[in-house]
């Protein structure tokens, strides 16, 4: 899909220091009935965010006005479970463009990259530093620099580099997607297909 | 490719790489693609907005399963949003010339049940679907894994996706399983040892006596759950059991084609000196009937054990406490004897004929406990028919159980089959995440035998006492 180019993102961040956040929490199955991509942000973290009667749960971070920003910082093993891309759509639709964690589940990571969310994997130590910085000052900003592959806590100046393959980096910084690439090589795929035994 | 010793996974993977992108993923060719109503509509919208078609419609198969009712399937679907999704699948399939097994079709059922039972799934294939439990098909020696909707769009439009090659892991389980210990227990045991993230970044091959002597149904249960330890997928080298299962099925190769296929399939095994990035070995004798006590599939243990304390498990205390609080459990409590409200047998993990045979072996001659509501949901119409033919339905009816119609049902609770908040369900499905089976629902994952034992006693019970 078409998405915004990603180069340098400077923003405050929303902390969610919970491990193994699975995609059923990010967007519960009963909200997957739409046949369009937009609008899932309203139900992002639905059951952590709202009570059964739809009133907001005051102790959940998205309901706390002191935290905001385009970066979501999650605990270890973020995005496990169901392959639903709706989870990434919900995060994007809510307004996040980057998720930071010390470890991501594979499918969630791939889905995010495909729709223009940058997953940034940092060391557990650096993740703790980010949580501490936000705890000390909810207005603390992070700078995520994709061309440089670095993430910096601006209030302390602490910085770490992160990995991303060259192909995906090129796509994200230019707003390209895989389908453009694949469409351009259909002739090669056709030849390959003819050789398949199945 | 290279002459060095290769794993089964390497052999199948390398045969499907159309192009290697430098410092990027492989362009990976997909032999078979399954779609269902929930994760495909937006992919078709994408095709439309780009004004491109489906490249090889004969390589894609549609079935409705995730969002379908399990009673009165002959009536119009009540929920307008669900009806709309089902309609979209039908219309999109028709428009693009894709085979569509909609609600009520004789071959309809859960995607990972119908693929194998109709011979669409074959050894050496690459298979994807917008559903993480696509790993099920690895039981046939295929590379099979779940994808997101953007990738569904890629497969539809180019029959390829972009994939970095995962690392390789081997999990050996040797020896003979004890009485009452099933393939579900084997996989829950492995996941409890590796944790939910233990195999992230890897593709797993399962080897050893236990898998060699396991039925295809059992192998599917094990490969199905691979994703629950973070693995992209799991696979088992094909053997005589595999070939016997496939032979004669609707889409399986026939005649000369069969002989050719067989020759190829027999080459699909890991070379003796091939090297894995990681390897684990377990003993069958250490595995008991398993049950989960927490909110991820790694939080499981032998049914007779008591709930661990936070310092006995990996991960942070606050996450562990949150999990037990959600479940309404405490450290050091025994699982045996805990009162149960619901039992669900079904899903792509344990919704095959063998699972209902196992369930029936315990309920036979007993009665469903009064405090238990049970949902018995076959994985497909073919399984449903087998249940009737084999007399299992009579056993169920006599014991006070009703058989529902096929679909994903309470596995993800998108339809009306939701466990109410706070209630306990012993479930043969694959995920015990918070709210997975309905907002506030509390799930205990287990085998069909453990589910049956809970259904007739009303509490968590060791099935070995009833066998
Ligand atoms: S039964 Fe559950 S896990 Fe399997 S395909 Fe359906 S929703 Fe997915």
Describe this protein's structure:
The complex is a heterodimer of chains A (about 200) and B (about 475). Chain A is of the alpha/beta class and about 200 residues long. Helix content of chain A is about 35%, strand content about 15%. Chain A has a single domain (about 10-195), classed as Alpha-Beta Barrel (Aconitase, domain 4). In chain A, helix 3 packs across helix 4 (about 105-115). The model of chain A has no long low-confidence stretch (mean pLDDT about 95). With about 475 residues, chain B is of the alpha/beta class. In chain B, about 30% of the residues lie in helices and about 15% in strands. The longest helix of chain B has 17 residues, at about 80-95. Chain B is globular and about 55 Å long. The model of chain B has no long low-confidence stretch (mean pLDDT about 95). The interface between A and B is large, with 58 and 78 residues. Bound molecules: iron/sulfur cluster. Iron/sulfur cluster (SF4) binds near residues 66, 110 and 412 of chain B. Chain B: Keywords: 4Fe-4S, Amino-acid biosynthesis, Branched-chain amino acid biosynthesis, Iron, Iron-sulfur, Leucine biosynthesis, Lyase, Metal-binding. Chain B: InterPro entries: 3-IsopropMal_deHydase_lsu, Acnase/IPM_dHydase_lsu_aba_1/3, Acoase/IPM_deHydtase_lsu_aba, Aconitase_4Fe-4S_BS, Aconitase_4Fe-4S_dom, IPM_dehydratase_rel_enz, IPMI_cat.
């Amino acid at each position: 899909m078409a998405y915004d180019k990603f180069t340098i993102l400077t923003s405050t961040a929303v902390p969610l220091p919970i491990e193994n956040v699975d995609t059923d929490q990010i967007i519960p199955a009963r909200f997957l009935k739409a046949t369009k991509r937009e609008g899932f942000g309203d139900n992002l973290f639905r059951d952590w965010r709202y009570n059964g009667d739809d009133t907001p749960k005051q102790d959940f971070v998205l309901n706390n006005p002191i935290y905001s920003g385009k970066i979501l910082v999650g605990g270890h093993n973020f995005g496990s479970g169901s392959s639903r891309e709706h989870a990434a759509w919900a995060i994007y639709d809510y307004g996040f463009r980057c998720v930071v964690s010390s470890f991501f589940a594979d499918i969630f990571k791939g889905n995010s990259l495909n729709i223009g969310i940058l997953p940034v994997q940092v060391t557990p130590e650096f993740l703790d530093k980010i949580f501490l910085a936000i705890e000390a000052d909810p207005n603390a900003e992070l700078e995520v620099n994709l061309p440089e592959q670095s993430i910096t806590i601006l209030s302390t100046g602490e910085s770490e580099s992160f990995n991303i393959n060259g192909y995906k980096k090129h796509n994200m910084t230019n707003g390209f997607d895989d389908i453009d690439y694949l469409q351009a090589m259909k002739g090669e795929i056709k030849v390959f297909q003819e050789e398949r035994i199945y | 490719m290279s002459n060095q010793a290769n794993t089964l996974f390497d052999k199948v993977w390398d045969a499907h790489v159309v192009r290697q992108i430098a410092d990027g993923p492989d362009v990976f060719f997909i032999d078979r693609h399954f779609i269902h109503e929930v994760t495909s509509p937006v992919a078709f919208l994408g095709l439309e907005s780009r004004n491109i078609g489906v490249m090889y419609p004969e390589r894609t198969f549609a079935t409705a399963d995730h969002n379908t009712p399990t009673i009165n399937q002959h009536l119009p679907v009540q929920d307008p949003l669900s009806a709309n999704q089902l309609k979209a699948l039908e219309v999109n399939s028709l428009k693009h010339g894709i085979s569509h097994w909609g609600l009520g079709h004789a071959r309809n059922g859960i995607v990972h049940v119908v693929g194998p039972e109709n011979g669409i799934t074959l050894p050496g294939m690459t298979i994807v679907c917008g559903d993480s439990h696509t790993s099920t098909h690895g039981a046939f020696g295929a590379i099979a894994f779940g994808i997101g909707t953007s990738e569904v769009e890629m497969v539809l439009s180019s029959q390829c996706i972009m994939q970095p090659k995962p690392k390789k892991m081997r999990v050996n389980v040797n020896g003979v399983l004890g009485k009452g210990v099933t393939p579900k227990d084997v996989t829950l045991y492995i996941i409890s040892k590796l944790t939910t993230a233990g195999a992230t970044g890897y593709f797993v091959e399962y080897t050893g006596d236990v898998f060699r002597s396991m039925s295809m149904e059992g192998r599917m249960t094990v490969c199905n759950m691979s994703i629950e330890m973070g693995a992209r997928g799991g696979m088992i080298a094909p053997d005589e059991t595999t070939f016997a299962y496939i032979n004669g099925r609707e889409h399986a190769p026939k005649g000369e084609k069969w002989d050719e296929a067989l020759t190829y399939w027999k080459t699909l095994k890991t070379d003796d000196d091939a090297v894995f990035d990681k390897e684990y070995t377990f003993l069958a004798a250490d595995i008991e009937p398993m049950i989960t006590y927490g909110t991820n599939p790694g939080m499981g243990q032998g049914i007779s054990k008591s709930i661990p304390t936070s310092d006995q498990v990996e991960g942070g205390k606050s996450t562990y406490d949150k999990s037990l609080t959600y479940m309404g459990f405490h450290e050091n409590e025994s699982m045996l004897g805990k009162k149960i409200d619901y039992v669900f047998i079904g899903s792509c993990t344990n919704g095959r004929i063998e699972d209902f045979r196992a369930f029936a072996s315990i309920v036979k001659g007993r009665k469903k406990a009064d405090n238990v509501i049970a949902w018995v949901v076959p994985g497909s119409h073919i399984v449903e028919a087998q249940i009737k033919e084999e007399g299992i339905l009579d056993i169920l009816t006599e014991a006070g159980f009703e058989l529902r119609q096929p679909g994903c049902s309470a596995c993800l609770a998108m339809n009306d089959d939701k466990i109410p908040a706070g209630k306990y369900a012993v479930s043969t499905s694959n995920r015990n995440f918070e709210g997975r089976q309905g907002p506030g629902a509390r799930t205990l994952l287990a085998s069909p035998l453990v589910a049956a034992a809970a259904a007739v006693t009303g509490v968590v019970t060791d099935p070995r006492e009833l066998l």
